[in-house]
Amino acid sequence: MNLLKKPVLKTLRHSLPVRVFHWTFALSFLLCLYTGLYISRPGIVPMKNMRQARLAHFAGQFALTGSMFWRIWHGLRTGNLRDLVPCKQDLAEIPSYVGYELFLHSKKKQFPKYNPLQKVLFTSWFPLTTCLAATGFTLYAPKMLGRVETALGGLNRVRRLHYLCMLAFTVTVMGHIYLTLTSGVNRLRSIFTGYMPLGKKK
Question: Is 201 inside a domain boundary?
Fold first, then answer.
């Protein structure tokens, strides 16, 4: 019996900075979602008081926005931002990939890192995060950001826009989770370990 196991060759899929960003972004989103539910409907989730909820919400929004802009800077510096933004060819591949996800055909095309739908979801987070930050800070300090409030049509419209952006964000995150869970165990594991076995498609 050979007790020496052949080492598994691995390739780096997600660097440590990218993994730190991913989990900071994920936890910040969950904090914003949780505290936002309390702020809009006090008592729907457990919180000590409104002041605690607002402070936690503000901290979550700051971390969410900061991590997003850090990711853009990191992507530009390393050149891997193109992994997240769909190109013309990716957009052309979307109908075929949607057909696969809807079980209209069984042929699944392999992509270098992310499929076209994942890229579209990732890219949508850039404007959504910016909109959430702008409307969120306006709601937090309307007197200081009175011009923004006026430009957006008043506090009620700002609040409605903030809510709709968060709703859209939540839907895209759910889509991201679904596509991740259906992309294979090794791809899912790589966001924790950073590595993926060579030659593995799943």
Answer: no
